[in-house]
């Protein structure tokens, strides 16, 4: 089949005969690379509409690439066309008077953070700043400012969406509100977003945060302190991530990533009980706000292999913590990978202040956790990652007494299953389980905006 750019296409059209083909299909995760027939670097919404029409005419699957950070390969396609927003639609413009950011569909969080903070403003963004805005936002999105400003999608004011039939629509509370409801949580199921308009909030220029490392034998003290801290209620200006991982010599260790939206003096006093445990290393400091969102970049470098598996808990689970830490160490050695299991403690009061039906994203008073595996691009894990990491997260899911096991999907952006997978009865994966009571309404929207299921690369909704 001859593949060529559609008539009037203004962007860049790359196929396997072009010198930049390999870089055009490269992704953050090496295991997410797929051999596309063509990559369309679109310049505007009209280009997107042309490519969608062309792909459907040729019966070719499409994928949408914003930041390209889906380890599951949602931004790649084997034998189809990639609509790539990253080359020409990546700019961010701030209106400081209105406290709004106009964000291109291919922008990354670093650009948002750096542009907004120049005006003393910020919005809820990713804690790894080379990640794309679109994927995080459309799947829910949470970050260090979630306690003060909610989910990333709660800060979306308006979006420009190109639907499967080529319509270029504005989605907001007042224009196409049904579409606006659907894109806030259901990912790319209804179209290609070429621009986001985000609310900005006043933000101090420096914050307190960083990495704290503890010996494995500090686990009991850590869990006692974590449990007390969590039961006292999280304050809106804080965040804490707790992880089980390995030292360079392969031995287990605990890590904390701390955040306090204030000075170092305030932050150290606030987290005093954690510092009093006696960490091996303390890298916390007062630093520029935009740098805080880059501290985790090192463990998420481009062109390595990645795999994630998510689960929810209702809080710290001391009874299974030792078992979890031991199993993380065992699996890292058995599979010959680097493995971290992270508990992401964020204040939920602001998130839960939005009624559960206002967006399609399902909210709950819960802690998102993730098993995060990485290994070199030229290597292969010594076993089945899906089954072994499922056993790992199930230790938590079965120990959890509050959240039902059958619906414990974990955070949507951590789902790694093949997008074409149709969940069986009782499975904890799939759009019908993920969106629960909102799923029938999402099916109605799918029939309206994408009846032929052009968009199926992330938690696909059946019609």
Automatic annotation (TrEMBL):
<dbReference type="GO" id="GO:0016491">
    <property type="term" value="F:oxidoreductase activity"/>
</dbReference>
<dbReference type="InterPro" id="IPR036318">
    <property type="entry name" value="FAD-bd_PCMH-like_sf"/>
</dbReference>
<dbReference type="InterPro" id="IPR006094">
    <property type="entry name" value="Oxid_FAD_bind_N"/>
</dbReference>
<dbReference type="InterPro" id="IPR012951">
    <property type="entry name" value="BBE"/>
</dbReference>
<dbReference type="Pfam" id="PF08031">
    <property type="entry name" value="BBE"/>
</dbReference>
<dbReference type="Pfam" id="PF01565">
    <property type="entry name" value="FAD_binding_4"/>
</dbReference>
<dbReference type="InterPro" id="IPR050416">
    <property type="entry name" value="FAD-linked_Oxidoreductase"/>
</dbReference>
<keyword id="KW-0560">Oxidoreductase</keyword>
<dbReference type="InterPro" id="IPR016167">
    <property type="entry name" value="FAD-bd_PCMH_sub1"/>
</dbReference>
<dbReference type="GO" id="GO:0071949">
    <property type="term" value="F:FAD binding"/>
</dbReference>
<comment type="similarity">
    <text>Belongs to the oxygen-dependent FAD-linked oxidoreductase family.</text>
</comment>
<keyword id="KW-0274">FAD</keyword>
<protein>
    <submittedName>
        <fullName>FAD-binding domain-containing protein</fullName>
    </submittedName>
</protein>
<dbReference type="InterPro" id="IPR016169">
    <property type="entry name" value="FAD-bd_PCMH_sub2"/>
</dbReference>
<keyword id="KW-0285">Flavoprotein</keyword>
<feature type="domain" description="FAD-binding PCMH-type">
    <location>
        <begin position="31"/>
        <end position="203"/>
    </location>
</feature>
<dbReference type="InterPro" id="IPR016166">
    <property type="entry name" value="FAD-bd_PCMH"/>
</dbReference>
């Amino acid at each position: 089949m001859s593949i060529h750019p559609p008539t009037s296409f203004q962007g860049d059209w790359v196929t396997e005969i072009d010198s930049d083909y390999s870089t055009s299909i490269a992704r953050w995760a090496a295991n997410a690379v797929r051999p596309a027939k063509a990559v369309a670097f679109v310049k505007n919404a009209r280009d997107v509409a042309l490519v969608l029409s062309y792909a459907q005419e040729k019966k070719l699957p499409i994928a949408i690439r914003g930041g390209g950070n889906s380890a599951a390969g949602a931004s790649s396609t084997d034998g189809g066309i990639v609509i790539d927003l990253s080359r020409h639609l990546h700019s961010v413009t701030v209106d400081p008077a209105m406290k709004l950011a106009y964000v291109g569909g291919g922008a990354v969080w670093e650009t948002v953070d750096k542009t907004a903070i120049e005006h003393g403003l910020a919005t809820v963004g990713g804690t790894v700043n080379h990640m794309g805005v679109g994927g995080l936002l459309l799947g829910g999105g949470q970050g260090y400012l979630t306690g003060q400003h909610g989910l990333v999608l709660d800060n979306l004011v308006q979006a420009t969406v190109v639907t499967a039939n080529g319509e270029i629509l504005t989605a907001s509370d007042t224009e196409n509100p049904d579409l606006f409801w659907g894109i806030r949580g259901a990912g790319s199921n209804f179209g290609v977003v070429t621009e986001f308009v985000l609310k900005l909030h006043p933000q101090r220029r420096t914050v307190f945060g960083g990495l704290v490392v503890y010996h494995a034998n500090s686990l009991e003290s850590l869990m006692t302190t974590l449990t007390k801290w969590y039961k006292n209620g999280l304050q809106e200006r804080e965040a804490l991530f707790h992880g089980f991982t390995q030292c360079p010599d392969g031995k287990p260790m605990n890590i904390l990533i701390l955040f306090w939206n204030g000075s170092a003096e305030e932050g150290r006093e606030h987290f005093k009980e954690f510092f009093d445990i006696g960490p091996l290393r303390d890298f916390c400091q007062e630093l520029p706000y935009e740098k805080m969102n880059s501290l985790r970049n090192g463990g998420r470098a481009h062109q390595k292999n990645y795999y994630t598996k998510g689960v929810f808990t209702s809080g710290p689970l001391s009874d299974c913590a030792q078992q979890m830490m031991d199993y993380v160490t065992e699996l890292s050695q058995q599979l010959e990978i680097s493995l971290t299991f992270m508990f992401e403690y964020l204040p939920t009061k602001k998130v839960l202040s939005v009624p559960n039906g206002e967006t399609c994203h399902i909210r709950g008073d819960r802690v998102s956790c993730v098993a995060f595996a990485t290994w070199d691009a030229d290597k292969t894990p010594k076993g089945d990652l899906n089954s072994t990491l499922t056993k790992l997260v199930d230790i938590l899911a079965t120990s959890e007494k509050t959240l039902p096991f059958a619906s414990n999907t974990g955070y949507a952006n951590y789902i790694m299953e093949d997008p074409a997978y149709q969940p069986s009865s009782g499975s904890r994966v799939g759009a019908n389980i993920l969106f629960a009571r909102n799923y029938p309404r999402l099916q109605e929207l799918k029939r309206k905006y994408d009846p032929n299921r052009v968009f199926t690369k992330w938690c696909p909704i059946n019609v």
